[in-house]
Amino acid sequence: MQPISQVEGSFTDVDGRYVIVVGRFNHHVVDSLVEGAVDSLVRHGVNAEHIDIVHVPGAWELPLAVKRALKVVKPDAVIALGAVIRGGTPHFEYVAGGCNAAMSNLQLEFDTPVANGVLTVNSIEQAIERAGTKAGNKGADAAMAAMEMVSLLRQFGGEA
């Protein structure tokens, strides 16, 4: 029996163009996510001049800006960052669900990684934990996922 070949991404050969699209709403949390993402990219060899940061009002607006970046900039990957914190109305579900579904669809439509670093949490305390305290920095995690996918897709070569 032939062994099954394995392909996986690494964190080498990840330099390229990255666009970070950031929802400003809850900026006191999101700013830390951006810092974590940029730090992670640069530490792994991405030239800081190849990182574009685009600001939008909030998570609901992220998919449109991500789509435009994919069309116009044609980056190697996009990293979407934001924070949706549950409140007393169903607004949370609509914003979080719509944003997540759209991000998934965009990466398939454009055959380009879209790393989802949008926090969907029940409290401000949970958001702060995920923006660089107890639970790590989810912005850095999203950047790592983006780089790993860039590396993985490069191994396949060619156009999809």
From TrEMBL:
<comment type="function">
    <text>Catalyzes the formation of 6,7-dimethyl-8-ribityllumazine by condensation of 5-amino-6-(D-ribitylamino)uracil with 3,4-dihydroxy-2-butanone 4-phosphate. This is the penultimate step in the biosynthesis of riboflavin.</text>
</comment>
<feature type="binding site">
    <location>
        <begin position="88"/>
        <end position="89"/>
    </location>
    <ligand>
        <name>(2S)-2-hydroxy-3-oxobutyl phosphate</name>
    </ligand>
</feature>
<feature type="binding site">
    <location>
        <position position="25"/>
    </location>
    <ligand>
        <name>5-amino-6-(D-ribitylamino)uracil</name>
    </ligand>
</feature>
<protein>
    <recommendedName>
        <fullName>6,7-dimethyl-8-ribityllumazine synthase</fullName>
        <ecNumber>2.5.1.78</ecNumber>
    </recommendedName>
</protein>
<dbReference type="Pfam" id="PF00885">
    <property type="entry name" value="DMRL_synthase"/>
</dbReference>
<feature type="binding site">
    <location>
        <begin position="59"/>
        <end position="61"/>
    </location>
    <ligand>
        <name>5-amino-6-(D-ribitylamino)uracil</name>
    </ligand>
</feature>
<feature type="binding site">
    <location>
        <begin position="83"/>
        <end position="85"/>
    </location>
    <ligand>
        <name>5-amino-6-(D-ribitylamino)uracil</name>
    </ligand>
</feature>
<feature type="binding site">
    <location>
        <position position="116"/>
    </location>
    <ligand>
        <name>5-amino-6-(D-ribitylamino)uracil</name>
    </ligand>
</feature>
<keyword id="KW-0686">Riboflavin biosynthesis</keyword>
<comment type="pathway">
    <text>Cofactor biosynthesis; riboflavin biosynthesis; riboflavin from 2-hydroxy-3-oxobutyl phosphate and 5-amino-6-(D-ribitylamino)uracil: step 1/2.</text>
</comment>
<dbReference type="InterPro" id="IPR002180">
    <property type="entry name" value="LS/RS"/>
</dbReference>
<dbReference type="InterPro" id="IPR036467">
    <property type="entry name" value="LS/RS_sf"/>
</dbReference>
<dbReference type="InterPro" id="IPR034964">
    <property type="entry name" value="LS"/>
</dbReference>
<feature type="active site" description="Proton donor">
    <location>
        <position position="91"/>
    </location>
</feature>
<keyword id="KW-0808">Transferase</keyword>
<comment type="subunit">
    <text>Forms an icosahedral capsid composed of 60 subunits, arranged as a dodecamer of pentamers.</text>
</comment>
<comment type="similarity">
    <text>Belongs to the DMRL synthase family.</text>
</comment>
<feature type="binding site">
    <location>
        <position position="130"/>
    </location>
    <ligand>
        <name>(2S)-2-hydroxy-3-oxobutyl phosphate</name>
    </ligand>
</feature>
